[in-house]
Amino acid sequence: MSEKSISDVLQDIKKLEERGTISHALKDELWQRALKEGPTEELIEDLAAYRMLGLRNDIAPTSSQPPKKNKGDSTVRGLICLVAVVFAGIYMFKDPPPPPKPKPVPIHDNRPTPIPIDEGSDYDAYSMAKRFVSDHLLTPSRAEFPDMEDRFVMRTDPDAWFVMAYVDTQNPFGAMVRKRFWVRLKYVGKDKWRMTDINIW
């Protein structure tokens, strides 16, 4: 088993898709392997191979030869510079253009009010994941979740999230134990969420 955690492997897979190194379908296939098999050495080697392929595609050949200097007659260059100076002096002593007239400010703005975008957030996804996990606990009222951190939440699609964290809860004997969990959930609009998968161990 690799030293990388499953969260690190999922982050690597997502970065490969964002860079265009792998397709969305291949991302889903690697994602399923990571969740079923864990961060195996074979999966880590496959990701390293895809990463090297992406780096090779980003390398572009560059020319090492310095640009050739064009030789010209110094007299011609001097005349060109003199003409440029004369035209610059004429332009500097011209009368400046009049300032633009200020535009009248409209009294009433008849533009329609923009409609707020209805979408979820990482914070909302973590809050809903805690609620879904609590529904599967023996004593949800005694459950203690950690504060939200960026490493706990990953946005996998515009309306889908993957949450992985832990919870301290009571076992059947009343002792507090720590359990880990991951939840897949989707935002369906109007502050409503739907859980698509959950695992607590």
The Cα radius of gyration reads 31 Å
Largest pleated sheet: 4 strands, antiparallel
Q: What's the number of helices? A: 5
Task: List the secondary-structure elements in sequence, H or E.
Answer: HHHHHEEEE
The helix/strand class is: alpha+beta
Question: How many beta-strand segments?
Answer: 4
Mean pLDDT: 81
**Straight-line distance between termini:** 19 Å
Morphology: elongated
- Percent of residues in helices: 25-40%
Amount of beta strand = 15-25%
Main sheet: strand order: 1-2-3-4
Which regions contain 5 or more consecutive residues with pLDDT less than 50?
A: 58-67
Question: Quick summary of this structure?
Answer:
With 201 residues, this protein is α+β, with helices and mostly antiparallel strands.
What would the keywords be for this entry?
201 residues; elongated; four-stranded antiparallel sheet; 38% helix; alpha+beta; 19% strand
SSE order and pairing:
Layout: H1 6-18, H2 24-37, H3 41-58, H4 74-92, H5 122-134, E1 153-157, E2 160-170, E3 176-189, E4 192-200
Helix pairs in contact: 1-2, 1-3
